[in-house]
Amino acid sequence: MFDHPLVVHAVVVLLPLAVLGTLALALRPAWRLRYGWLLVGVTAVATVLVPVATSSGEALERRVGNPGEHAELGDTLIWFAAPLLVLVLAMVLLERRRSGATRDGDGPGAPGGPGRGLATGVAVVAVVVALGTAVQVYRIGDSGARAVWGGSVGASSAR
């Protein structure tokens, strides 16, 4: 169906980009209004591609052999990407709500109001999830590289 290395490289580029964007938007709330929807889009595409990469990896596994730890770790990535997407979306929506309430001069988004605390809390959780996602992407990539270049899979199918 899909070429596993091609889909994987899309995930390996887009998901770390989503991580960096999440860190940037968490640290600079003003950027959430300007770049938030772009980050939501990048994170959504990366998240949608994770199961595509997993299924293409399973198809490749049937042809070249079991990559061991790499397949097991790859199955976990959706549990990092999906919460990251939800948190990025929450950051953007909360900032839009807060900025709208600030223009009115009161409400949950007013300076010091409860909306600010919630937005900060979501940003902190987003940073933690983003860092965990980055670590997991690294672990999966490293195990895949060891499986391919270490000779544990594909040696007999190269003929």
UniProtKB/TrEMBL annotation:
Source organism: Nocardioides aquaticus
The residue ranges of the DUF2231 domain are: 4-155
Check the record and name the InterPro entries matching this protein.
DUF2231_TM
Pfam families tied to this protein: DUF2231
The record's keywords, sorted A to Z, are: Membrane, Transmembrane, Transmembrane helix
The molecule here is called DUF2231 domain-containing protein
What residues form the membrane-spanning segments?
A: 6-28, 35-56, 76-94
The answer, when asked if Membrane is one of the entry's keywords, is: yes
